[in-house]
């Protein structure tokens, strides 16, 4: 947000008549303008595409809300029921490249790291393997949840799902889990 700009009428190029049109179309606050695309704004009578683009350049954001950080984004939900902002998508990509990934495999899950796979196994087991591996190798993890095809950083998923986390921690402490992981990634 540009410093000091919090009102629609403060956006450069926006006149009183534009404010009335925008209000009439349901855009009543600066915040409302963050969750809309320039194309949509240009559909409002009296708002040219050039002005719509100028508004978006100032307000930033987009028509979707990032499923991870809550920031507005123009990235449409593609592989997932959720949209993710560019920053979070990049974080997922980097984590998937450098760390461990838990992803759906058939009706179950598989654990993937450095070209090796472990699974298929249950969700809890896959998370426990990944959790152990991430601690052992000091790497981050990504979890791709089958249901909504949402994506998570492994630690954030476990922190927001405490009952799953405690099941995963129980399994992760077992020497059978350590052995299975070490067989694949020794
Ligand atoms: Zn985000």
What does this molecule look like?
- With 186 residues, the protein is α+β, with helices and mostly antiparallel strands.
- It folds into two domains: 8-62, DNA polymerase, domain 1; 86-185, no CATH class.
- It has eight helices and seven strands, in the order αααββαβββαββααα.
- A five-stranded mixed sheet has the order 5-4-3-6-7, with helices on both faces. It has a two-stranded antiparallel ribbon with strand order 1-2.
- Strand 4 and strand 5 (116-121) form a beta hairpin.
- The longest helix has 15 residues, at 123-137.
- The protein binds zinc ion.
- Zinc ion is lined by residues 66, 68-69, 71, 84-85, 87-88.
Strand content: 15-25%
Strand order of the largest sheet: 5-4-3-6-7
Global geometry: elongated
Number of domains: 2
Assembly type of the shown chains?
Answer: single chain
Radius of gyration over alpha carbons?
Answer: 22 Å
Helical region count? 8
Note the gap between the termini.
Answer: 49 Å
Mean pLDDT, nearest integer? 91
Query: Helix/strand-derived class?
Result: alpha+beta
Largest β-sheet summary? 5 strands, mixed
How many runs of DSSP E, i.e. beta strands? 7
The helical percent reads 40-55%
Ligand roster = zinc ion
N-to-C series of helices and strands: HHHEEHEEEHEEHHH
Spans where pLDDT lies below 50 across 5 or more residues: none
């Amino acid at each position: 947000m540009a410093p000091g700009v919090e009102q629609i009428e403060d956006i450069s190029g926006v006149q009183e008549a534009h404010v009335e049109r925008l209000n009439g179309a349901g855009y009543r606050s600066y915040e409302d303008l963050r969750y809309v695309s320039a194309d949509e704004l240009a559909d409002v009578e009296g708002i040219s595409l050039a002005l719509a683009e100028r508004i978006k350049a100032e307000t930033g954001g987009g028509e979707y809300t990032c499923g991870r950080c809550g920031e507005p984004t123009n990235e449409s939900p593609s592989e997932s029921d959720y949209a993710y902002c560019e920053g979070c998508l990049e974080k997922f990509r980097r984590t998937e490249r450098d760390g461990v990934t838990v992803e759906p495999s058939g009706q179950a899950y598989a654990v993937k790291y450095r070209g090796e796979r472990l699974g298929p196994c249950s969700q809890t087991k896959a998370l426990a393997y990944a959790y152990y591996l991430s601690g052992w190798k000091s790497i981050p993890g990504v979890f791709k949840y089958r249901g909504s095809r949402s994506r998570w950083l492994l630690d954030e998923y476990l922190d927001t799902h405490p009952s799953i986390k405690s099941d995963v921690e129980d399994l992760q402490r077992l020497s059978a889990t350590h052995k299975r992981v070490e067989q694949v990634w020794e």
